[in-house]
Design brief:
Structural class: alpha/beta
Protein name: SulP family inorganic anion transporter
Strand order of the largest sheet: 3-4-5-6
Low-confidence stretches: 1-33, 442-446
Helix content: 55-70%
Largest sheet: 4 strands, mixed
Distance between the termini: 55 Å
InterPro entries: Membrane-Transporter-like (IPR052706), SLC26A/SulP_dom (IPR011547), STAS_dom (IPR002645), STAS_dom_sf (IPR036513)
Membrane topology: Multi-pass membrane protein
Mean pLDDT: 84
Number of strands: 6
Subcellular location: Membrane
Shape: elongated
Keywords: Membrane, Transmembrane, Transmembrane helix
Number of helices: 23
Order of helices and strands: HHHHHHHEHHHHHHHEHHHHHHHEEEHEH
Amino acid sequence: MSPKHPLRFVRSSTKEMLDTPHHPEVAQNLALGDGGATPEQRQSVWLTLRRPGWLKTEVLSGLVVGLALIPEAIAFSLIAGVDPAVGLFAAAIMAISISFLGGRPAMISAATAATALVIAPVVASHGVEYLFATVILAGVLQVAMGLLGIAKLMRFIPRSVMTGFVNALAILMFMSQLPDLMDVPWLVYVLVALGLALIFLFPLLTKAVPASLVSIVVVTGLVIATQMAVPSVGDKGELPQALPVLVLPQVPFTLETLQVIAPYAFAMAVVGLMESLMTAKLVDDVTDTGSSKTRESLGQGGANIISGFFGTMGGCAMIGQTMINTKANGARTRLSTLTAGVMLLVLSVLLGELVGMVPMAALVAVMVYVSWATFDWHSIRPSTLRAMPLSETLVMLITVAGTVATGNLAVGVGLGVLAAMVLFARRVAHFVTVRRTVGPGDNAHDDGGTVTYTVDGELFWASSNDLYTQFDYLADPDRVVIDLSDSHLWDVSTVASLDAITEKYERYGKTVEVVGLNDASAAMRQRLRGKIAPGG
């Protein structure tokens, strides 16, 4: 490949770009504008710092996300049963930490409803100090899971489950806004409509400033100027007055304490990691780039450990804010995540009074738009549903229903994967075909005394269960040949099925010859033949 071939730079690593600041293709792309950059280049912090337009997008998006995090962090604090400051500081510390530790650039991690629900019981039963210890232990467990390669299991998530996950997420985000639209003055609905109009229409004028930020500023300014009596961020709870400090959980360091916090820590680790990895995969699709899921697992664990030692409730990836950051605002680098965390601290501590004036209607409008943009509308079009296999649609619906019914994305994904496994097993069980041919064998004196069964397809526990019933044991002649040239033995269940078939023929005084096995299948059958209960 020529050294000037553009693909050479496209496939270069971030480190290579940093080590070659005068690379001619870097200079060329810098001169071309956003359209001349690859998705991988757009994630580079170094390149973004050299591009005022990109840098503005990252900073402004971080500001919008920081604003949007405040009411949700306060709400999640109430769910967990702790002071608002605990949730706000968790959001800020998680966002700042993950911007350095995480494997998925531009993804936002903070306090979340999923983790708040999991840890709420330990706060109610043992107090907030046990919460901090639980968060630290959850982080340690996530680091361990990352080292064990748990993140690699993400490749087994079917696309139909991912589609259901995205749609369920959009529904949950919309439903989470409903409390702020109930029992409120009618002016709230007017403000929400105005906010949505600005978000949808402002990009027609210019995309230089995120439409969501314009919506928040305009709606807030209108409320302040007219002194409308509508719910505001300040109504959610009191904002903190000082920065967080390092603390050591005031709990007994005993086996009894470990027994108390371990179940909650494990649940938080699993739920948080699953939600984070699913969000990372979603952002991979949105940005057309890859990310290290193992590093993300380690990063989530590290961020929770840091969060626990700062006396907060920890968390995981926030799907709604991540979609605001990447899909609505176009951010792509770690700078946006870092900015969101820093802005949240500044807004909460130094500008708390001003932030408290932001009407909830402005933030509701942003979240409603993100819900609309996140939902995969193509997946429910009649033309798509007609073209899709029924099993794929069913898996998507199960994932959506399980998630919405429980309010837990991890439960919905688990049910979707389980349904996909069952439906897949049912489908592949019928992939194997058996063709029966009666005729002379390799001996001229057989004269039709041989029957050959040709098996076509992969044989494993699901597809081999019906193999036993595909033979005519009584009517077959004395010599039976089973040809597996077009098949493969994958597991012990198939060997057991062949043993059962051979044994039944022998009871009728007939001989069976299995031919055509490839080397791996022959070795497996030789090793296991006769050592398994028939059909076991």
